[in-house]
Amino acid sequence: MGDKEKEIRLRRLDALADSMGKDVVKMMNDDNVFEVILNSDGKLWTDTFDKGFVNTGLRMDPDQAKSIIYGVAAFSNNVIDLEKKPYLEAEITESALFGNARFQGELPTIVDAPSFNIRKHSKKIFTLDDYVEQGTMTLKQRDIILQAIRNHQNIIAAGGTKSGKTTLLNAILREISKTQDRIIIIEDTPELQCTAENHENLKTIDPYIDMETLLRISLRKSPTRIVVGEVRNKEALTLLTAWSTGHRGGCSTVHSESAVETLYRLEEMVSQVSLTPQQARIGRAVDIVVYLKYYSTKREIEDIIHVTGYDKEKQDYITEKLD
Questions:
Q1: Which of these, 255, 259, 263, lies nearest to 285 by C-alpha position?
Q2: Fewer CB near the last or first residue (10 Å), C or N of the chain?
Q3: Where residue 79 sits, what CATH number does that domain have?
Q4: 186 shares a domain with 47
Q5: What are phi and psi of 291, to 5 degrees?
Q6: Domain boundary among 64, 88, 120
Q7: What is the DSSP pairing of strand 115-120 with strand 33-38?
Q8: Could you read off the pLDDT tens digit of each residue along the chain, which spans 323 residues?
Q9: Which CATH number do you get for residue 179?
Q10: 280 and 316: one domain?
């Protein structure tokens, strides 16, 4: 980035800080707060580690909220089209204001008044040992995950909203980075951090380059392990194929309601591009599912299963509970 670009970026950051105001900036710098939420009724909420959702008692007028949304758009080099796309999905990166964050903003007419969510990315990369110390996982669960990494098994971190899937994936990636393997990381939102010497990050460009395209590209980049931030759609089939044909030892996240349900969620995604069921492929590709549960203010690993195949007669996956 040249001096002129840096100067423009700093001016935009200053403008964004002014539009946010001291209260929101203070929330964003509070380590106990991981999300700042403005509802269209003007009420400001935070989501915190110790208390969950908290009504701050503060209100924001629609003009200020609109200014913040447009300020984030300018800072992240996005354009808002009120007719075709009256919302903003953006990343606030390399910000001296409060670090990195994911921004989701909405404008009328899909809401009554401007609203937004600012989800802060964790400043710290937790280790598996940190998880044990916090009580998120047991020593046995940690050892199961470490052994799966050493054995080049494919791992899916699954869970619902706010369960900590990406944070766990970062902890797993930290252990993978200690190997000599070449790692290709694919994301649509840059949240994964890799310290491996030999790695490459690929990011989607909406609407031109999607996860499916990046997965095909990654297969020509000589990966040892393929890591995908989150599998959501048709890219599931390509990833499963890669994981079961010479690129084992990868990891990803899937939004689901239980460890076993994760496998059926993959079926749903694969069905978008496949006319025939791919249960056998899923049974071959997925080795370990680590399921996280969010309990108001606490996250725990509820279940770890080992997937060994698919039973056609019983029409069910063959799994073994490990923890």
A1: 263
A2: N
A3: 3.30.450.90
A4: no
A5: -105, 125
A6: 120
A7: antiparallel
A8: 677 887 888 888 888 989 999 999 999 999 999 999 999 999 999 999 889 899 999 999 999 999 999 999 999 889 999 999 999 999 888 666 777 899 999 999 999 999 999 999 877 789 999 999 999 999 999 999 999 999 999 999 999 988 999 999 999 999 999 999 999 999 988 889 999 999 999 999 878 899 999 999 999 999 999 999 999 999 999 999 999 888 999 999 999 999 999 999 999 999 999 988 899 999 999 999 999 999 877 899 999 999 999 999 999 999 999 98
A9: 3.40.50.300
A10: yes
- The residue length of the chain stands at 323
Q: Tokens 């060994």 appear where? A: 308
Taking a C-beta distance cutoff of 8 angstroms, is the pair 194, 201 a contact?
yes
Q: Which amino acid is at 283?
A: G
Shared domain check, 207 and 75: no
Number of domains in the chain: 2
Burial class, 312, CB count within 10 angstroms (exposed 0-12 / middle 13-18 / buried 19+): exposed
AA identity, residue 9: R
Q: Which H helix or E strand runs over 159?
A: strand 155-159
- Domain end, chosen from 86, 120, 154, is at 120
CA distance readout (Å), 88 to 81, 92, 165, 229, 235: 9, 12, 23, 20, 24
Q: Nearest 5°: CA angle at 189, between 24 and 126?
A: 75
Q: Do 178 and 297 fall within a single domain?
A: yes
Q: Which domain holds residue 272?
A: 128-321
